[in-house]
Amino acid sequence: MEKSSGLLAVFFLCTLFIQLHITYGQMSKFDNQIPEKIAGLFLLTDRSKKDGYVSLDEFISITLDKDFNGDNSISRQEWITVDAALGIFDSPTANRIFQAFDTDNNDVITLPDVIATFSTIDAAIRKDGKISAFEYLIAYIRLITAVPSKKI
Q1: Distance between CA 23 and CA 103 in Å, rounded?
Q2: What is the model's pTM?
Q3: Tens of pLDDT along 89-115?
């Protein structure tokens, strides 16, 4: 039994490595500092508990911080402006991430969009109600590479 669980663990790690390698290979057409920027964003998001995981509350809080006009929604322009001001992502990358968060494609991110995005990221590897740094990195790289950029 121990041998089969060890083989399963090795298989799981190999699968994750291959997935990361393929996903990271797609990053070559983008800014090569994006993994470091995503790690910095993760640290900003894990701000209340600082436990190495992002909870739904933390995810909602950091995302809705981009709502600088106080209408409980984030427009594409707010999103891109805040990312540029913080120096996190350039406009095309911020635009791709905005599109991924905008789950209902209405050009506005609302609380249901944020919750749906959190659930998608959380379910990518383990559905446990929190997102690890690794899950966060993989999810953001997928968001950046999978979503075609829409013209502003």
Answers
A1: 22
A2: 0.69
A3: 888 888 888 988 998 989 999 999 999
Statement: residue 46 has pLDDT above 70: yes
The predicted-structure confidence for 16-43, as pLDDT tens digits, reads as follows: 566 555 555 554 455 567 777 788 788 8
- Rounded to whole angstroms, how far apart are CA atoms 88 and 40? 8
Q: How far apart are the first and last CA of the chain?
A: 56
- The Cα–Cα gap between 33 and 88 comes to 10
CA distance 135 to 128: 12
Q: Which domain holds residue 79?
A: 31-146
Q: Quickly list H helices, the chain.
A: 2-26, 34-45, 56-64, 76-86, 91-101, 111-125, 133-146
- pLDDT the model gives residue 25: 53
Task: Count structural domains, the chain.
Answer: 1
CATH number reported for the structural domain that contains residue 92 in this entry:
1.10.238.10
